[in-house]
Amino acid sequence: MCPPRYFAVDYAINPWMDPSQPVDVARALAQWTGLRDIYRRLGHTVEEIEPRPGLPDMVFAANSGTVIGGRVLGSRFRARERAGEAEHFRRWFVEHGYRDVIMPSRINEAEGDFAWTGRILLAGTGFRTDPEAHAEAQEILGVPVLSLRLVDPRYYHLDTALFVLSEETESAPARIAYYPQAFSAGSQRVLARLFPDAVLAGVADAECFGLNGVSDGRNVVLPVEATALAERLAAQGYEPVLVDISELRKAGGGPKCCTLEIRK
């Protein structure tokens, strides 16, 4: 995670960003701290990277890389405003002992568009990550990759429209939650075929970034406004943990955007 010390909305690279609206950096930092502390309270280890001036979106650490089995596929941003983040995150991985760090040749916005199910890497495209980056991820990470097309610009990253509730194990398949209308008709059919027991979200939960959730298989961290989704998950045995990310949402981010999951 990366604290939003230099958080701002000085430009618009997604439909949620409006530079004319004021941003409260202190509030953003307090919300981020609350999210970090929730992870720690749930027993997870949180490592932090130092933010850099001039990179206000660095708080969205999910875009910094994809880590599976200790191998790191770095990021390459489409927007020039975020391009500088990639090298800072690459250095962090190297300085923290990761020896297998490979930077992509194609536009690849990391866990923003990649979701690991324990067997298959779900990969989004349509607005940010290049389709060719999916094949590159398969070659570098050595895992099967399934491409999904996003069609609604409000859900410009896969992690704004889908997240993994529990990874596949020997005894149980993976489970996901997603917002169907964010995907092309063909991608909707693929998801329905692969995940027939998925939790489907409605428009209200999608619009508050309810699909930008983080799950450890039991506890599911969601924006506080995602009440219907939280109720649906609770009914199925999950433990919703609600967090206020309203200030960070002004830049088009939520819990998952702030969180890179490192799988060693």
From TrEMBL:
One of its GO terms (molecular function) is dimethylargininase activity. One of its GO terms (biological process) is positive regulation of nitric oxide biosynthetic process. Signal peptide: none annotated. Keywords: Hydrolase, Transferase. The active site is at 157 (proton donor), 257 (nucleophile). Gene3D superfamilies: L-arginine/glycine Amidinotransferase, Chain A (3.75.10.10). It comes from the Bacteria. Belongs to the DDAH family. This is Amidinotransferase. It comes from Amycolatopsis alkalitolerans.
